[in-house]
Amino acid sequence: MRTARLRTVHPALWAGWAALAAGAVLCVIGWYGISGERYAERQLPYLASCTVPGAALIIAGSVLLTHGRNALAAARVEELYALLVAAEPADADESGQTAAVPVATSGKLLMVPGGTLWHRADCPLVAGKSEAVPVDSRVLASGQLEPCPICEPPADGRDD
Q1: How far is the C-alpha of 108 from the C-alpha of 154, rounded, in Å?
Q2: How far, rounded to the nearest angstrom, does the alpha carbon of residue 126 sit from its chain's CA centroid?
Q3: Start-to-end Cα distance in the chain
Q4: Are residues 79 and 1 in contact, defined by beta-carbon separation less than 8 angstroms?
């Protein structure tokens, strides 16, 4: 599945190769003309009419090839990105919506001293924190802590 942008890059590549080939031919003709002349005043016309334009065409061809290859790479990246964005997640149902997977399901509730939220034990916000302690029911009853919006522990603070 090629996009229109990929097709528009090829003329730049062909033009680059053609300019490189024409430049090489002109440089060879200039060299051959210069090598057959003994005096510098007779070599200058070959230098001016063949070798300098040949070198310019070689440089232009190199620039075109570089631009064409960069544009081709950019077009391929855009095509891959479009494929990535268009792909549906593996757990999507027929309606196209993904099933909501809970972040945490543990029944054990924890809190971090000095914090404002209580969490499930497997909540990513308290995972690996050694200072997390079990929630005291008196702290929950006083309303000092709110349930974590990430792991969504039970609002009353009771274990499920």
Answers
A1: 11
A2: 32
A3: 52
A4: yes
86 close to 136: Cβ distance less than 8 angstroms: no
At 89, list the tokens. 């997640």
- Per the CB < 8 A criterion, the answer to whether 111 and 135 are in contact is yes
Q: In what order do the strands lie in the sheet with 109-111?
A: 133-134, 109-111, 117-120, 146-147
SS3 assignment, position 101: coil
In 3D space, the residue among 68, 71, 75, 70 whose CA is nearest the CA of residue 17 turns out to be 68
Q: In whole angstroms, what is the distance from residue 148 CA to residue 26 CA?
A: 75
Contact yes or no for 153/118 (Cβ under 8 A) = yes
Q: Which residues are 109's β-sheet partners?
A: 120
88 within 8 A of 118, measured Cβ to Cβ: no
As a whole number of angstroms, the distance between CA 105 and CA 130 comes to 20
Q: What is the pTM of this model?
A: 0.42
Give per-residue pLDDT as tens, 113-146: 888 888 888 888 887 788 888 887 787 778 788 8
